[in-house]
Amino acid sequence: MSKNIRTSAVDHLFEAILSLKDSEECYIFFEDICTVNELLSLSQRFEVARMLRQHKTYLEIAEKTGASTATISRVNRSLNYGNDGYDMVFTRIPEFNDDMK
C-alpha cells in the first residue's frame, strides 16, 4: 500500500516550485522551506540516481557522495520499480543525457 501524497497541500507546494524562475530563486525558496540537511539529502539522492544510471558501482557512489549503501539501494529500487520520475528529469536535462552515454 503506497502513501497518498496527492493532497491540496502538496499541490500548493508543487505550484510554488513550478513558479520559480531560475536556480537563484530555487536557492532562496529551498533554503527557507528545507533544513540544510534535508536539501543535502535530496541532492545526494539525485546524485546517487545519476551515478547509478551511469552504471557506477555502489562503492564508487558511496565514496563520491557519502551515501550509505542503504540509501543507494533505496534509490536503485526507485529507479527500477518506481514511477520513472528520475528518468523523466534526466531526459530533459542535456548535460545528464551526455552523462548517460
UniProtKB/TrEMBL annotation:
It comes from the Bacteria. InterPro entries: Trp_repress, Trp_repressor/repl_initiator, TrpR-like_sf, YecD_YerC. GO terms for molecular function: DNA-binding transcription factor activity; sequence-specific DNA binding. It holds the Pfam family Trp_repressor. NCBIfam families: yecD_yerC. PANTHER family: LMO1763 PROTEIN (PTHR40080), TRPR-LIKE PROTEIN YERC_YECD (PTHR40080:SF1). This is TrpR YerC/YecD. It comes from Anaeromicropila herbilytica.
